[in-house]
Write a sequence for this structure.
């Protein structure tokens, strides 16, 4: 996922930082994204990674690692309960004079990538991942199609905002909605904006950034937007066109930080972390 491309970049950045601190004791350089966490004092402070993988398979109701998650798994239950909470919130909002909107991330917010986690043994690779994205192989996150359909019925505009690259836009739209290729998750079509944008925001290459991204990300490394800047600047852009983003759904904290939403909803995803 473009988002995962950034994960890969982040991984490299983190490795560089680690190496730097071993060699020179240098602190994090400005703008370097890395996962900040604790350092275990003992192996007893962490879960063995093979045991952890088994716990994740159990959580997804897929103890043998077939790649198909269980409809009754704890994962599915947890995702459905977030979708329900979103539905209750959306139904209760009548205050805004702007056009009400909901905004959703794609990977592991709207579509479940569990089959790819299993196939890749949790090791993201852009080439093998593209096979799943372009083949439209991801099923819907439990509860989320109902939520989006309900929002649409209640007059909400529907926007998707993903770190997947612009080259994956058509396949992403096909997987989310219905185009007869691979899996059709059955989401309503995203809402077209008054300026002609199609309501599914994929991440452009820096050379193709619209003005609002160029401005928001000028100080980011190489002028390439961090996930938080890319997503929050896009939400700001959407709101500048007359929408109120009443609810923002994401599986990563970087989907949710940076404002421009009345409320945020975190979908479960213990498989990867994107700063
Ligand atoms: Mg995601």
């Amino acid at each position: 996922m473009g988002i995962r491309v950034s994960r890969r970049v982040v991984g490299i950045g983190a490795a560089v930082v680690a190496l730097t601190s071993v060699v020179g004791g240098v602190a994090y350089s400005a703008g370097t994204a890395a996962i900040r966490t604790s350092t275990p004092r003992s192996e007893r402070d962490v879960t063995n990674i093979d045991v952890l993988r088994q716990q994740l398979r159990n959580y997804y109701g897929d103890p043998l690692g077939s790649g198909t998650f269980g409809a009754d798994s704890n994962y599915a239950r947890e995702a459905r309960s977030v979708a329900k909470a979103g539905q209750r919130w959306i139904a209760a909002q009548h205050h805004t004079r702007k056009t009400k909107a909901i905004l959703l991330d794609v990977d592991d917010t709207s579509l479940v990538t569990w089959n790819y986690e299993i196939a890749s043994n949790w090791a993201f690779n852009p080439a093998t991942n593209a096979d799943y994205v372009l083949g439209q192989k991801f099923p819907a996150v439990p509860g989320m199609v109902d939520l989006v359909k309900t929002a649409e019925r209640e007059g909400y505009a529907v926007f998707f905002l993903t770190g997947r690259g612009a080259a994956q836009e058509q396949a992403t739209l096909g997987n989310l909605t219905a185009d007869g290729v691979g899996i059709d998750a059955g989401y309503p079509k995203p809402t077209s904006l008054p300026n002609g944008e199609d309501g599914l925001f994929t991440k452009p290459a820096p050379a193709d950034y619209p003005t609002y991204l160029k401005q928001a990300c000028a100080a980011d490394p190489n002028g390439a937007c961090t996930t938080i800047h890319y997503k929050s600047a896009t939400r700001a852009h959407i709101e500048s066109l007359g929408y109120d983003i009443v609810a923002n759904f994401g599986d990563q904290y970087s989907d949710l930080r940076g404002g421009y939403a009345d409320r945020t909803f975190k979908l479960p995803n213990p498989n990867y972390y994107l700063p």
User: Anything to note?
Assistant: Residues 1-32 have pLDDT under 50 and may be disordered. The two ends are 14 Å apart (CA to CA). The longest strand covers residues 157-165.
